[in-house]
Amino acid sequence: MYDLELKNVNVYYDKVCALKNINLQVKKSEFLGIIGPNGGGKTTLLKLILGMIKPSSGIVNINENITIGYVPQTSNFNKHFPIKVLDVILMGRLDKSLKLFHKYTKEDVEKVGKIMERLGILELRDRQVGELSGGQLQKVLIARALAVEPKMLLLDEPTANIDVQSKTEIFEILKKLNEQVTIILVTHDIGIMSSYVDTIAFLNQKLYYHGAAKTDGVVNLD
Amino acid sequence: MIKAVFQYNFLQNAFLSAILASIVCGIIGTIIMERRLVMMSGGIAHTSFGGIGMGYFLNIEPIIGGLIFAVIASLSIVLINKKTRTDSDVLIGMFWAVGMAMGILFIALTPGYPPDMTSYLFGDILTVSMAGLKLMVILDIIILFVVVSLFDYWKAFLFDEEFANVLGIKTMYLEYTMFVLIALTVVVLIKVVGIILVIALLTIPPATAKLFVYDLKKIMIISIVLGGLFCLLGLVVSYQFNIASGATIILLSAMGYFMAMAIKKVINNAGLSAKGNKTSC
Ligand SMILES: Nc1ncnc2c1ncn2[C@@H]1O[C@H](COP(=O)(O)OP(=O)(O)OP(=O)(O)O)[C@@H](O)[C@H]1O
Ligand SMILES: [Mg+2]
User: Fold this and answer.
1) Mean pLDDT, residues B12-26
2) What pLDDT is attached to residue A148?
3) Ligand 1: does its nearest atom lie under 6 Å from the Cβ of A72?
4) CA-to-CA distance for B230 and B256, rounded, in angstroms?
5) What are the pLDDT digits (tens) for B72-94?
6) Dist CA A38 CA B105 (whole Å)
7) Could you tell me if B65 and B58 are in contact, meaning their C-beta atoms sit under 8 angstroms apart?
8) Which of B34, B149, B155 has the CB atom closest to A87's CB atom?
9) Which residues contact B58 (CB under 8 A, 6 or more apart)?
């Protein structure tokens, strides 16, 4: 059973071809690591899966009703927006159908509290987002994606600004999560990643390799 | 003056409209500030001048014409911007000027003695009619209800539209609603401070509030209080000295902002010296 299936997918931005003839299948509970050079189309692939961009041609099949969590690469939100960390993460608990006079429940707050504890950011609760360091912000965004309680989690370079110890912590958390959640992770941290993921994909406009995470084969391609 | 308020209907209307104006200013002004839509709001306000002129020409309530133009302008700017990738800056400039031009044309075509437009351009809170007041109440209720009842969604949308979208929230509807609300707000404010001065009243109270608090809801509430203070004070001063209400309110607001900056500086300095030797660690 596949959670995600791409068939002959092409994506163009005007005339720039970002993804060319991509065929990719991701199994349920697979932990897929995507690597590739800058501009290789990794972010584009994630956005395609999220439905934020449409394929120019080809088919994107996603297991219906699957909840997707997303940690964006560069957060294009306004860092000076007056919002505290707890409220940012609670955002993940919002339902897609608008309810009048919506209030976050006690359960929502508890769940979010547990996630923050796991990521070691509980003491940042009442801080403003504008006051966070790059790595702290990254963890807050991961927490927000987890708050969705996703069945599929997409992460775009979530460990880019993060110290070595936190990197390991995050990969440990993902590994644990992976028992129930399909994970697709874009990263340049090939070393640490390869001991956690099931499969690796190498993306540079075309999909050059998708298979078991045997480091030797991949390093040659890189 | 207090006695006069009870005696004269027009003063009661003025007081009520000052309060109604500050409520929407605080709420929508904060949204405008956070979304950087100040020039957009200026554009919508000026386009509504065309509608006011049309109102005179067709012999309907001018402010209703203004309302129609404001709503159409705000939605058109967003739509054209999405469809054609013309910079919204350019579109705003076009609507701004075309709206004014249409207003002048309509007035010129209106038969009879030309109406005095200064109260629309610069505001005259003392001339708010009963009908005008009723319209303001209705618009205030709509704006207040839409923002308060969906507050969590607004917060998510304003902070990170992309993520809200990923959650499956139809942010497109929120966006269009936001622009309609801005248009309604502009119309509420036209009689109070005038088309030309609207953007000042939309920006100064939230900017002042943001000097002291960092929470969306608190900024809105404090902006309402500050806006109310500026408007009522402006009303008193303009009544006593018989000067235009719009200009008085704006100048008082600006003074308030600079005073707040000075106060903040004093507080910060006091905080630093109180902590004193602790700052080294
Ligand atoms: N919005 C856009 N408009 C036009 N071209 C784009 C856009 N976004 C990406 N591209 C192009 O598509 C290609 C793939 O970009 P993408 O962002 O997917 O790369 P990436 O693999 O995520 O790179 P990085 O490692 O730098 O994050 C690049 O050539 C880029 O220039
Ligand atoms: Mg990228």
Assistant:
1) 93
2) 95
3) no
4) 8
5) 999 999 999 888 888 889 999 99
6) 56
7) yes
8) B155
9) B65
Q: Tell me what pLDDT residue B216 has.
A: 95
Binning pLDDT at 50, 70 and 90, where does residue A220 land?
A: very low
User: Which B positions 245-274 lie with beta carbon below 8 A of chain A?
Assistant: none
Chain B positions touching A101 (Cβ under 8 A) are 148-149
**Cα–Cα dist A153/B66, whole Å:** 48
Q: Please give the Cα distance from B137 to B144 (Å, whole number).
A: 10
Contact A78 B159 (CB under 8 A): yes
Residue B276: band (very low, low, confident or very high) from pLDDT cuts 50, 70, 90: low
| Backbone dihedral angles phi then psi of residue A14, each to the nearest 5 degrees | 50, -110
**How close is the nearest chain A Cα to the Cα of B73, in Å?**
26
Going by alpha carbons, the residue nearest to atom 28 of ligand 1 is A39
* Contact yes or no for B162 and A83 at CB 8 A: no
The chain-wide mean pLDDT, for chain B, equals 92
How far apart CA B125 and CA A57 sit, in angstroms, is: 59
pLDDT > 50? residue A222: no
For A179-217, write each residue's pLDDT tens digit: 999 999 999 998 889 889 999 999 999 998 888 876 554
Structure pTM? 0.90
Q: In this predicted complex, what is the ipTM?
A: 0.88
Distance CA A153, CA A173 (A): 12
Q: Is residue B132 within 8 Å of residue B63, measured between CB atoms? A: yes
Token pair recorded at residue B178: 């936001």
B163 touches chain A (CB under 8 A): yes
Closest CA to B73 of B83, B81, B84, B85: B81
Report the separation in Å between the CA atom of A38 and the middle of ligand 1, taken as the mean of its atom positions. Answer: 8
CB contacts of B163 in chain A (<8 Å) are 70, 72, 77, 91, 144
CB contact under 8 A, B160 and A70: no
Nearest CA in chain B to A84: B215
Whether A148 contacts A169, CB under 8 Å: no
Mean pLDDT on A100-112: 96
User: What is each CA distance from A73 to A134, A142, A198, A201, B165, in whole angstroms?
Assistant: 12, 11, 22, 18, 16
- Of A72, A102, A104, nearest to B162 by CB-CB distance is A72
Contact B160 A87 (CB under 8 A): no
Residue type, B166: V
Give yes or no for residue B8 having a pLDDT over 90: no
Cα angle for residues B228, B231, B235 (degrees, 5° grid): 135
A220 or A25, which is more confident: A25
Q: Is the pLDDT of residue B279 over 50?
A: no
